[in-house]
Amino acid sequence: MWKRPLIFAVLIFVFICTHCHVDPKKQNIEARTGRTPTDHDLARPDLHLYESFLKNFTNQAVKRTLPTLYRMIESINISADCLSSLFKYVVSLKEIKVWAMKMFDATAKIPSGIFSGTVTEVGAFDQCLAIMVKNKKGLEDFRGQYCSVEAIPTLGPRPKNLSLAKRTHISFNESIIKEIQNTIFAFYQLTHRFGICVPSTCSANDMQMLGAQVVKPLNYGIRVSRCLVSEEIRVEYLKISNTISTGLG
Description:
The termini are far apart. By secondary structure, this protein is α+β, with helices and mostly antiparallel strands. It is built from nine helices and five strands; from the N terminus they run H-H-H-H-H-H-E-H-E-E-H-E-H-E. Helices cover 44% and strands 15% of the residues. The longest helix has 28 residues, at 47-74. The radius of gyration is 30 Å and the shape is globular. Strand 2 (132-134) and strand 3 (140-153) form a beta hairpin. Mean pLDDT is 75; it is low at 14-21 and 240-249.
């Protein structure tokens, strides 16, 4: 006889727990918007959680890189406009502003398959050139500038009878450094090529000096071959008046 009341009590407890449970996502939406969330609100991902994660991630990344960036900039003589724009870029990355995230996104990263010979990553050319940054007055501050960069490790004289086709066997458990030592001779013929997106206030010479500082610990040589900025095409119409004098007689 005691089993029935027990089962009934358990069912009541489950019913209460099910209906009294408050969805954290629903709570967040209500607190943020001041209204009861719709089915569409509950169905879509909570992008504010992603935003919070991204802000925390970029904050930590910027905090770690800023001291190194300060030391690099102190040792080179880049233009004041470039310096100001770079710091604005870094601060805006920390604040995950759209233009800064697009500029970072348009810059090439380490390519996939680099140990199989992939040494080129061009980035996003069109996305970079489409970026325009305005100041507080709504006037243009600078634009996205796409720079082509070449980098190559500093190597000694090329060994005689070097065959890039021959590769010694590297054990799966060996250090990655040994794998690099086995493939680095390919750079007698190859060059790392990649594209970066930077503020248009920085000249190719500015980026050359900054890039040289970045790769200096790696004993790399670097060359910023060219930088491109999208500019408005202005067409001026020239009025040409032709006066034809006809003499009669």
